[in-house]
Amino acid sequence: MNPPDEDQRRSLMAIPWFAGQAPEQAAALIKAGRLIRRGAGEWLHGEGDEETGLLAVLEGRLKLYCQAPGEREVMIAIMPPGAVMGQSATFGGGPRLLTVIAAADSIVFTLSDRALRQAAADHPGVWRDLAGLLYLQLSTILQLVAVLTALPPRARLAARLLQLEQNLGVADVSQGDLAEMVGVTRKAINGWLGEMARKGWVRLGYGRVEILKPAALRGVVAG
Predict the structure, then answer these.
(1) DSSP letter string over 86-121?
(2) What domains, with CATH codes, occur in the chain?
(3) Structure confidence by residue, pLDDT tens digits, 73-121
(4) Which uninterrupted H or E stretch holds 74?
């Protein structure tokens, strides 16, 4: 693991969670962290791991899995570049709640509990900003639960595409991963995506879906 270089520090400072902090505090956190590289399919950490801390995606994408009944792991989300996630046993709580696996070759910034404590000794606002991150994570999870509970499968697909697109115009996700996150078969996903493509709402590519008419997808979600 290596510390970020100057260009990588600037990229990290531009991530919204860091950019929203006092500059001196964000710089201290970034200085205390390390970068790791993971190839597609390689683990970053597993659900139940005792060592906690933060992750920020600099390049690539990460898949998030959680344990489901029947000892089955299900993918619940994909973290794109610029996303930050984590928890701290120091701040309360317990072991890791999710398994994180690289979806593509990735560069990930990591910040351990020890590094958080060291930075917080000089910048107590670290704990306030960590609490804000935890609230955002809880809000995201509740939104996912609402989508799964309230929407029929086709509308769930539209909602997932909009969430993954992140106003960038492209959802970097395979149809197989979409099927797992929506909770339907890949055949069903292929059919709905084909319909959306014929209507000019999306353009399909290898491992990606280009969103051409987000308003049309929002209409599907709204029913």
Answers:
(1) EE-GGGS--S--SEEEESSSEEEEEEEHHHHHHHHH
(2) 6-148 (2.60.120.10), 151-222 (1.10.10.10)
(3) 888 899 999 999 988 888 777 889 899 999 999 999 999 999 999 999 9
(4) strand 72-79
Amino acid at 110: T
Neighbours of 107 (CB within 10 A): 18
pLDDT digits (tens, 9 = 90+) for 110-142: 999 999 999 999 999 999 999 999 999 999 899
With 0.70 as the threshold, say if the pTM is over it. Answer: yes
Greatest alpha-carbon pair distance for the chain in Å reads: 57
Q: Which residue has the tokens 């014929």?
A: 198
CB neighbourhood size of 153 (10 A): 14
Q: Return the number of other C-beta atoms located less than 10 Å from residue 68's C-beta.
A: 10
Structure tokens at 216: 């049309």
Q: Give the length of the chain.
A: 223
